[in-house]
Amino acid sequence: MSSLDSHAGSAPHAGGHHGSYLTSKGSLWADIANWATTVDHKKIGVMYLTALLILFFLGGVMALAVRLELLEPTRSIINAAGESVTTGQRLAFLAGDGATANNIYNRAMTLHGAIMTFMFIVPGIPASLGNFFLPLMIGAKDVAFPRLNLASWYVYVFGSLFALASALVGGIDTGWTLYTPYSTMTDADHWRLVAMVTGVFIMGFSSIMTGLNFVVTVHKLRAPGMGWFDMPLFVWAIYATAIIQVLATPVIGITTLMLIFERLFNFGLFDPRMGGDPVLFQHFFWFYSHPVVYIMILPAFGVISETITVHARKPIFGYRSVAFASLGIAAVSFLVWGHHMFTSQGELTAAIFSFLTFFVAVPTAIKVFNWIATLYKGSIVFNTPMLYTLGFLFLFTIGGLTGLPLATLSTDMHLHDSYYVVAHFHYVMFGGTVIAFLAGLHHWWPKMFGKMYAETPAKLGFWLVFLGFNVTFFIQFVMGAHGMPRRYASYPDEFQWMHIISTVGSWMLLAGFLVHLFTFIHALLQGKTASANPWGGMTLEWHADSPPDEHNFEHEPIVKHGPYAYDRVVPPHTDPQDYPLPEKSDPN
Amino acid sequence: MNAINAAMAHVSTTLASASLQDLFWFGGRSYTEAGRQADWMFMFIWWLSVVFFVVLMFLMLWWAFRWRRRKGQAAPASPSHNTPLEITWTVIPTIFFFVMFFEGFRGYINLNYSKVGAIEANLLAYQWSWLLEYPGGQITTEAANESYGAHVDDGFQAFASVPAPVWYFPENTPVLLRMTSRDVIHSFWIPDFRVKQDIFPNRYTSYTFVPDPLDDTALIMQDEELGTYPYRDHILMCAEYCGDNHSEMAGIIRIVPEEIYEAKLEIFGSPRGTLAERGQIVSQQNGCFSCHSVDGSSGTGPTWKDLYNNEHQYTDGSTILADDNHIRESIYVPAAKIRAGYPNQMVSYQGAISPEQLGWIVAYMKTLSDATPDAELAQAQVDPDAEGAEAEGAEDGGEGDAPADGSMEPTGSAGTEGSMEGTPSGG
Description:
- The complex is a heterodimer.
- In chain A, strand 1 (76-78) and strand 2 (84-86) form a beta hairpin.
- Chain A is an all-alpha fold.
- Chain A has helices at residues 28-36, 41-69, 87-90, 101-121, 124-137, 146-168, 182-185, 191-220, 233-265, 278-289, 291-312, 319-332, 347-375, 384-401, 404-407, 409-415, 419-449, 455-482, 496-526; strands at 76-78, 84-86.
- Chain A is globular, with a radius of gyration of 24 Å.
- Chain A has a two-stranded antiparallel ribbon with strand order 1-2.
- Chain B is α+β, with helices and mostly antiparallel strands.
- Chain B has eleven helices and 13 strands.
- In chain B, helix 7 (275-285) crosses helix 9 (355-367) and helix 9 (355-367) crosses helix 10.
- The longest helix of chain B is centred in the N-terminal third of the chain and has 34 residues, at 33-66.
- The two termini of chain B are 24 Å apart.
- At the A-B interface, strand 1, helix 4, helix 12, helix 13 and helix 14 of A face helix 4, helix 5, strand 7 and strand 10 of B.
């Protein structure tokens, strides 16, 4: 039985069809005006994707600059004329003033962190893939508040421009965590800091709008017949994320506002010279920024749940526990912010936060077990989305397990603020979220743009990214355990060989991303036309055209089975040669 | 000071001498009992994680390969959930997590609670160095260059060799540091001891350790005054990002036999040398050289080379002669006049550098300048034979006239005891 009868064998372009959402309006100006004023969630998703990839590129350039700098233990080289040239001066475009080499390093490091967290990875999957696929996967025409959705994109771009304006004239050197009192004392010319923080403040609204929109959409716009446990797991993940976005983001709004007031009007909230408490800022900051880790990773969990079932042609193992684990993680994520502050607070608080932190590990572990169990007796195809999915399981498991010594008090006393932490959160955020983002991007690319990407170069890109990532970051566990503090522009010589390995890895990563850029552009220009359901997926988005019709579906779909009923149903639009019916076919 | 030079080659020995095996995971040997417990905990989690990881990855790869897609062949039906299995894999990790939490908390207590009879010292952290005051108010007069940037041979050259203060503590004796910060948040980390602790302005935090006894792995120091003795160096770093020179905020904890520690305290309590030499030491202790070079190279702040008694451009367009009063103002009220081309970044050293010490620093600056009115006289001060003078004029120089009145020129020998009494917290 199919969930959608309208597609089965019938002429796809019947009444009510408006053509692909990508169809040109005639002239370039008409297209620009159309996209700029669109309320179509798919166009907004693509607009988010474009903005995100540009910012990812900028953040990546900063990362490469930081790693290049760390090739050498100190910051200076001798040029041909025999003068001492600081490494930072190679990055001189960053500096709008007479900054020292250390200062330039600190700014590049801060920009990398600020761009990647606030501007790329937090909005990342929900705003791009979520916007595009959430309504499609629940069989809706659009999100609940389409204009709010468009506004959220403009707010996001506006906020990014504030932050980038700060970056263009040199940026700030506080680290992305903006810890007081350094962030209130540094840099007399403080409007750069205020611009950056204002950018973060503005972007917070975009995050809240998106979250609010998704919560209402999931509650109100599910297609007839779709109960809560008929929802795809990506929808569950986005839903859990949206709840965190709505609840946690106002806290960063308040915190950034307080920081701006502190900076401009000397409120004395955080500055000890005026009786303020610098640790208060850390509490505020992490009360948002810990849950935000799950804003980053939960959507990735959702993507992996989709890709692993479709490309293994298996119902996910333990659907309900995966769905509840998402909600459980979202709930516990609010109670563990203090584990970022074990070295800056009292013993009792540290103990309580350590205890609570382990409770996040439980649902996370359950999810990994479920994904791996899903592979059992599957029909697994090693295409790029599946390679990225397996890569995710490998990297995220390392990321999760290496979090244990950080949650444990005695070992965190040594590892806190060392390169071990840097390696750990890159394994979680990059090895987790970015890898899942790439899995999802390849998985849904045919649906989004109606074109297939070329599999062979995409696989090459995967191997470069996967190996490059491990070369870059695994050695950093060793560095950190051995005593290399993070955010160091120069370092003891003993660590140089490890930094060299790490930097070479970053170049492999760059090569991998360039290969992907090539495959995506190639797919857009010369890719083969994609069928509506190239992978044989069972969730509703595969019932729409590729690329989808402007209003998603010709008729409102009626859901009659769950999203992963592979044992009973052959998905439509698949080659029976590749996807034969199970022998024990369900009479339903 | 020869001892320092001799020690420089061995400064980071504890890091450099580690074998490749030691290099992995928690940086080789820990030099405290509590640190070894933390190491044990880390290795427990590590091997547990390795087992879980290997099992999971083996299953993942085996199943992915075993059940890879074959043309025209359907996937067999398989269970989509299994409640006993799911309960099992929820309960077992939870038990391990409880064990980790409790063991970790125990280790944390061991690392953080000081033993009875500890040597209690005060530590002031600031951008970008540390000032440690021994129980008797003494402060170290020794510094060593770290191993940062020794690649002169292959085209790299040290940007600035930042002197790291060297602190002496006796072996096998508990130490308790009471720490506070003058400006921003810092973090005190000795990797060899496996603990770090943040340091805040307007708040005291503590740091404790019991260094292991010196065994046959200790190095041997040849010291002209104190003879030959074993020692062990531990690198100290700042682990909380604190601005430009965060990464140069290092120090060395040197563990020595009890009697050497006592002897060192005696030496630190009665510094000898000329005013300029004392000025150099005070400058080192206060971290001046993390921003100001003495060889003309550029840094966060203006170089001290040829600074004294020369005219310089300031951001308001004026040109000012850098005389004693101007230097005094620049140290006590740094924001008053900003040199053109430099950020307004320095914090005030009012209360940290006494007027007497300020006089020593001026004396030291004179030796670095070609424009000193009495350059030859100033140069003569660096002559180690010249006994340091008791700067009588500086003693009552609290009103600001001391540095200018020339009374701290060496006028002959005088008693040396107690001449460091103007240290920040006054002992």
